[in-house]
Structure formats: structure tokens, C-alpha cells
Write a structure and sequence with these properties.
alpha/beta, elongated, Rossmann fold, 13 strands, 13 helices, five-stranded mixed β-sheet, homodimer, 16% strand, 34% helix, four-stranded parallel β-sheet
């Protein structure tokens, strides 16, 4: 392949970060370094904002050893952002600025590591850059703990959260089982998932035998039925002595009201934003009188690199690597995906999806993954989830703590006026 | 040593369980099995309640392999309880019942695996049994995530929570750092510790360089100063772009009011029990307007066997082993303890404390472990904490999840009337 004049790469992380998004970055950078026809990899400081501000982190000054450490470093080593480009009609100036920055830094490749919104943006940039007569090869790199991207079998980032929540509810379940005779009888763990219950569902893997935690899963896909929920909770306490519950943050009533919206007010009349876990726990206490405990794992779950899934790390890296290979093969406006070849034994390969097919489509849990009563997962779900949490990819430890990459952000010298 | 007629052992787990209390049980049972002069080890079903109810789990029918698995199984494999015996004057019948059950089952040894209250009980049983002319050898086995027992350098269970919270805040801190440019700027992690800030303090180990998370620790030992706290939070956001906070559940104002007591009421006028993390997060939001996230790890932290400290597991096992050896050496009303010989390199040995010296004394963080401003830990604290989180003692995994012991509770046939 002939060397392009604009053979530098722009890579950006987008949206909520994960335990393995840096493994994708590692895949991009390590693969690019193996190809002399490619130039430098610039990473956007704080994602796409870094391109608009011309804050380009020059990864070429970072040692191979530090780049290798990205594979086991959680969160976004270059910074991410919650910033969605408007449509070209709404804000053409933003797109023009992107092209201007890319042109100024000889950037011919744009790898966007994010979810559905980001792939929509990448797709628009691909089209717009052609219109501007400065074609940029745009390749998506999938990422989201929510696991809600279409076409790909799963999303890098999800498997590690899945493993974290399944391990955590197994451990906490044993704790409650120990205490329930004279103390805590109900435990509620709140997990992420505003629209889709993939994470909550994966926690169900912890239950392998009759009576194992979790006993109840509350999904956003199933409107919350308080009467049925309380009856099930009581039945579990009666039968097993305790009840361990996993609830999606997005759990809601039939009318769309979130369970987390408790309608409480503080001394000044401000609405009090509780989590859904304490809301459910209080509901149980009020109705059934059981002593409870609750946990909200929040960022802990998606940052938990210490218990990352081996499958997830491998796939995250492979997606980054494939993005570079796709670009070198002349592909454009596509995203590598995970294709499941077989579940038992698990075999997967790298496939390809058009960005236009990925953008802005949200994949929810299929109804047949949820048991008929709405509180558990089916065998079909188990078959889907099980391979995704396989393998323990432990980071190295130093002084009892995981040693993560410390990435210096050396910016490429600016060449353009300040962007506003 | 001549074989005593009452050479059976009664072992019980007491109070809140930990990631390594079963490692102590493993130490007791494996060591007892090596001594033919000792009889069966009975474990109280749900702790001391099991003795009162004559529900004695016969561990002699459990395979060596399953007993070995206890070493890596969190929570209380035989059940624990929150039940404190009254004084002998208040409820002599309970003590008489214990002796009656011990006599009926040829039990001459009582190993009580718990905190200060439990050691007080064990001490009383030792004295009472002599008065009853049926002397029982009573040995304590230390346990508590709160790390608040006196004399011993640390308490089994603490090191693993310490490791969990330090790892978690390091990981979540990186997450917030990634997002802070356009999203979350403040993250609050609530950890256990109602009276003592040992756990919160240990989280401080995660900060090794200027700017590392956590930036603020809120201790129960230091009355909460809202003005100083908010000023510090703002200073961190200004300087580092974000602020990661660890707070003890027991954090309180000068007048003793807990931060977690938000004074909120639900639709029915019931007091709403929030966690301290959401309370602090809301305080920051109201005063400074920063977007926040918060997590409450609750049972997850003390059950987190998947990230247990190697030092902690080793010490927990050693305490159980030493309890048996103490008993065989004719000691009574004592507890093995951890003696720190040296910090760098860490060396420790098994020592001994009288139960009467351990009972009902609560060890708080020394003031010189907390920085003068009250929001951090000193070098002295680091030297103390560091060895306790060393080493990763990973459990075995099966299908992507830790494989823990599944303990069948086979009860010894009852010989006495039902206890009420």
C-alpha cells in the first residue's frame, strides 16, 4: 500500500469509559506501530473535544512498555467526554473545524471508540470529509458497558461489568446467607443499565443451584409490579431464609416512573435523588419489615479492571487491532464487530458492520432471555452470557495495588487559531 | 497430652462476617484433624445460637477437600449471628444451657471467632464453666473488618476490605478523571466504619503521587467541618479537574449528628435513611454545582474474597491454627493475636492476649495517622496499612466465577430438650 501524505491517525475515546477501553487503544496503537506506512497516532485529549480544541496527545513519544500497560489499565487514559456533535445542518462549523485540524496534522484516519452515538458521528465525518474533498477513513471501535449496540454479538466493556456483578452478588449473597438468621434478610444490589437490563441479567449467572443468589432480578424491560415483587421477596425469605436482589438503575413502573424517583424532599423542598437500591430496600422494609442492606456499585462496576473478563479484554484489544487493519485494507465507515461462531465451546471471530447500520440503534434484552415471571434469566440468556465472563485477566500488582499505566499527555504543537 | 473425655471442639462464628473468617475456620478444623487427641469439631449453626439450640454442625463428615475450600470462601460457612449473651447475672440460664449442651456432646473446647463482644462472652464462659465444675477451654479467634480490637496489630478481615477499597477508589478515580472535562467531577465512595476510620484510611493507600485519588477522606474520628470540606472539594476540582472522596459511614458533625441523617421524609412522613455518600454528593451539588456520582459498597467490600489480601488470608488461617495449638498447650481464656515485628520488610508473628484485656475495648485510628487538616493519612498510617494489603490470594474459578465451598450442614443428633 502506498504511503498517504496524511497517514497520521486520530483516535478518540467517547462516552462512559470501561475497564477495557484502553485495551482497544492498546490494540490500535500497537498495531499501528507495526505498520511503517502509518504515521503517528494522535489521541484526542478528552475525546472529540480534543480534536475541536486541537489538543492532540502525541502517543509517539510514549514508550512501548507504557502502551502495553494500557491493556490492563481501566478508564480512559486520554480522557473521554460526553459531547455529541450536532447534525451537519445544525452545526457545520464543528465538522469544518474537525477537517481543518485533521488537515493541519496530516490525519487521514479517524478511529472513534464509543457507542451508538459516536458511530453516528464517525459516519457523518466520513461523508462530510469527502464532501470537503479531504477524505478521512473513519472506523468505529465498539465500546459500551450497556451492551446495547446492534449487529455485534456483544460490546467490549460489557463482559467485565458482567463478571464484576456476578462475582459481587455471589459473594454478597453468601454474606447475607450467613447473617439472615438474626440480622439482614434482604440485600439489594443496584447495577447500571438505564434502558437495557444486560448487566442485571448477567448477574443471574451467579445462581447455579436452587437457592443461590441472586433470587430476584429487576429489569428495565419489564414494568415493575410491586405486588409480585414483594410476594416473591417474601417467598424467598420463607424458603431460603434470605433474598438477594439485583436491580437495574432504569427499573420503572408501567407508567414510566423510575423506582429511583422516591418523591422525597429535603428540608428545602428539593427533590432527593435516591438510588433505586435504597428505594427498593425501603419498600421491602415498609411492607415486610425485613432488615435490609443495599449497595450501589456505580463507577466501581465499570472501572473494575481487577476482575476483568479475559474474553472481554481479548475482544477489546482485537477490535482496536481490527480497526487499523480495516483502515489499511481500504475500508471506510465500518466498525469491527464480535461474531459468535459457537457458544459451547465458545468461538468468535471479527466481523464487520456499516456505521450507518450501527448508529442510533439500541439493542435490548430479548424477551426470551427473561423468565416468564420477569424476575430471572432463562437458559438461552445463560448460554449467551456465560462465555463473556470467562477468564481472569489480572493486572500486575505493586505494593498490594494494581499498577496501571500513567500516561503523560504530551500535546502536538498547535498550528491553528483557538477554537471557540 | 492425655486424651480428655470431653475432647470435642465447639467453634462458632460471630457478628458481621468477612472475606476470610472461613480461612480461620479452615485453620481450626485442619489443625484439629492433625491431632488424634482431639475429637470432632462441631460448628455452631448460626453462631452461638447454634449452641443454645443444640444445632451443632458435625464437620467430621465433611471431606478434607471441602474444608480446604473454606480458605478461599467468603462469609460465614456455618452461619453467624448478631446475638450477644447477657451478663451471667441477667441471664444465668443461657450460660447453664451452653454448659449443658457442651456436656451432652463431650465438648471441652470453645473457639469463638469474633470481635470484642464475642471475646467478652468467651471469657465469661471460661469462668462460668469452672464455677459449674465442667471447665471449658475457651480460646478467642480474632475477626473484624473494623480493625478495632486492642493489643493485636490488626484484625483478620480488615486487610481484605482495606485492599478492596484501595483498589476500588484507584479504579473509580481513573474513571472520574477520564470523564471530568465534560461530565462527572466529584465521586463519593462510602465505606464501612461506624466508629473507627480504619477502612476509610486504608483507601488512602491508593494515592501514591500528587493528584492521585482519593483526594479527600472523611473520618468518623474527625468532626465534619462542612466549610472546610467544600473548600477542599473545590480546590481539588480546580487543581486536578475532579475530586474523589472516600467517606466512613460513621462520619458525623461536631454535635454527633450523622451525615447520613438527611432529615428527609417520604410521602408517609417516615424518615428516609439515605447513605452518607448520596448525602455528601448532594451537599457538593447544592453548594458547588458539580455533577457527581456516588457508590455504596456495603457488603460487597467485606465479602470481596476475589480481591482478598494475601497477608490477611494467611493471618486469618494462622489465628485459627494457633487457637487449637493454644488449647492443646493448656492455655485458657486467651486469644492469638498478630504481632508486628517489623514494617519494612514486613514480619509478623503470633502472640497472645488475655480475653479479659480484649473484651469491650475499641481501638480507634491514632490521631497521628490522620493529617492535620483531617482529610488524609500520614506516612505513619501508610507504614501501618501497607503490609496488610500485600499479596493477591485469588480463589479458583469455574465458568468465569469463583468456586466457593458448598458446605452441607449435617447436624449432630440432639440429646437435650428444645431450648426456648
Amino acid at each position: 500500500m502506498p504511503v498517504r501524505p496524511n497517514n497520521n491517525i486520530f483516535y478518540a475515546q467517547s462516552g462512559g469509559v470501561t475497564a477495557v477501553i484502553n485495551a482497544s487503544a492498546c490494540g490500535v496503537i500497537e498495531t499501528a506501530r507495526q505498520h511503517p506506512e502509518l504515521g503517528k497516532v494522535f489521541a484526542g485529549r478528552n475525546g472529540i473535544i480534543g480534536a475541536l480544541r486541537e489538543e492532540l496527545i502525541d502517543t509517539s513519544v510514549v514508550s512501548d512498555a507504557t502502551i502495553a500497560e494500557l491493556r490492563h489499565t481501566p478508564a480512559g487514559a486520554f480522557g473521554s467526554c460526553r459531547y455529541k456533535l450536532k447534525t451537519i445542518e445544525q452545526n457545520r462549523a464543528e465538522y469544518e473545524r474537525l477537517i481543518e485540524v485533521f488537515r493541519a496534522h496530516d490525519i487521514g484516519y479517524f478511529f472513534y471508540n464509543g457507542g451508538g452515538d459516536s458511530q453516528d458521528t464517525a459516519n457523518k465525518v466520513a461523508q462530510f470529509s469527502m464532501d470537503m474533498n479531504f477524505p478521512i477513513t473513519c472506523i468505529g471501535v465498539p465500546k459500551t458497558v450497556d451492551n446495547d449496540l446492534p449487529i455485534t454479538d456483544c460490546c467490549p466493556g460489557f463482559g467485565s461489568v458482567a463478571k464484576y456483578v456476578a462475582v459481587s452478588i455471589r459473594e454478597a449473597g453468601l454474606d447475607v446467607a450467613s447473617m439472615c438468621e438474626s440480622s439482614t434478610k434482604v440485600f439489594v444490589l443496584e447495577v447500571m443499565g438505564r434502558h437495557a437490563g444486560w448487566i442485571a441479567g448477567a448477574a443471574g449467572l451467579a445462581a447455579e443451584q436452587e437457592g443461590d443468589a441472586p433470587h430476584i432480578i429487576v429489569f428495565p424491560e419489564i414494568p415493575f409490579d410491586k405486588t409480585a415483587f414483594l410476594a416473591r421477596t417474601k417467598a424467598c425469605v420463607d424458603k431460603y431464609g434470605y433474598c438477594a436482589i439485583v436491580v437495574s438503575e432504569g427499573a420503572h413502573y408501567e407508567d414510566g416512573t423510575f423506582l429511583a424517583d422516591q418523591g422525597t424532599r429535603d428540608a428545602f423542598g428539593h427533590a432527593q435523588l435516591g438510588g433505586v437500591a435504597p428505594a427498593l430496600a425501603n419498600m421491602v422494609k415498609d411492607a415486610l419489615g425485613y432488615k435490609y442492606h443495599w449497595a450501589v456499585s456505580d463507577y466501581l462496576q465499570r472501572a473494575a479492571r481487577h476482575i476483568a473478563s479475559g474474553t472481554d479484554v481479548e475482544q477489546a484489544y482485537a477490535m482496536g487491532k481490527a480497526a487499523v487493519e480495516f483502515a489499511l485494507a481500504g475500508k471506510n465507515a465500518v466498525m469491527p464487530i464480535v461474531v459468535r461462531e459457537n457458544s459451547k465451546p465458545y468461538r468468535w471471530s471479527v466481523g464487520e458492520a456499516k456505521l450507518s447500520d450501527v448508529a442510533n440503534v439500541e439493542k435490548k434484552m430479548p424477551r426470551n432471555f427473561i423468565t416468564e415471571d420477569g424476575f430471572g434469566i432463562t437458559d438461552a440468556a445463560r448460554e449467551y452470557f456465560a462465555p463473556l465472563i470467562q477468564g481472569e485477566d489480572y493486572p500486575p500488582y505493586e505494593n498490594g495495588l494494581p499498577r496501571f499505566a500513567r500516561m503523560q499527555h504530551v500535546l502536538a504543537p498547535k498550528k491553528l487559531p483557538v477554537w471557540k
